[in-house]
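In this section we walk through a basic example: taking a raw amino acid sequence and producing a predicted 3D structure, encoded as discrete structure tokens. The instruction is simple. Fold the sequence below.
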Amino acid sequence: MSEIHGESSVKSDKQICSKKIEIDIERLKNMGFITSLQSNTLLSEELREIKRPLLRNIKKKKKDFEKTNMIQVTSSLPGEGKTFTSINLAMTIAMEFDYTVLLVDADVIKSSVSQALDIHEEYGLTDYLNRDVKNLSDVLLNTSIPKLSLLPAGTRQSLSTELLNSEFMDELINELATRYDDRIVIIDSPPLLATNESRVLAHKVGQIVFVVEHNKTTQTNIKSALSLLDPDMNIGMILNKNRNARGQYGYYGYYGYGSHEDD
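The resulting token sequence is shown next.
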């Protein structure tokens, strides 16, 4: 059985996480995120449509070990809604009966997920990769949301790109991808055109969700960002902040790109 720093892979997330944190569901609801308190809203229906192709890809590729359960969420530039999408995807997939979710904050400069969830943990991903924290259990967090755990970004490191590109990161990715059959890992990463970290991570995952802001993201930025990715990957684009018929902002569709199949 594979191990990371002595943590046996037979343990569940609930067993290896050393701390449980409370997430303010009402606060998230007021911020516009999907929660279990509002599972029948238009946003929740849009997210159901978005997650279905992702889940189908996981089921199709499960026997091939192509890490399709490792899903990176990114965008071209900051402010397009990739962290909003990461958290919403984690929330909606955690509502599935057959899956658990680990949400990884890999936006190691801004710690966007931690900020959005109002989490103030000192250590996280970068500290583990830098060997400042010995055990994975010391940075994995159980949350008060059923079937959702969290790996915070951690403290800022001057060589964050090198840490994410290390063999130790490869070992961690492989462990997270294979430890549990029912786990899906959502990785919130920096924008592709803003930092190198996101490009490094894109070579380690099985699916990419590329967030495009409606009426803002230019075709030039989209093409430039997508050119940094392997076109043979499972890549899907989400049009975010689209005004619907009710005058509300939300998502508009999930479009396959590269080898992604949505049938």
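Looking at the output, two observations stand out. The chain is about 30% helix and 20% strand. Confidence is low (pLDDT under 50) at residues 1-15, 244-249, 259-263. In the next section we compare this with other chains.
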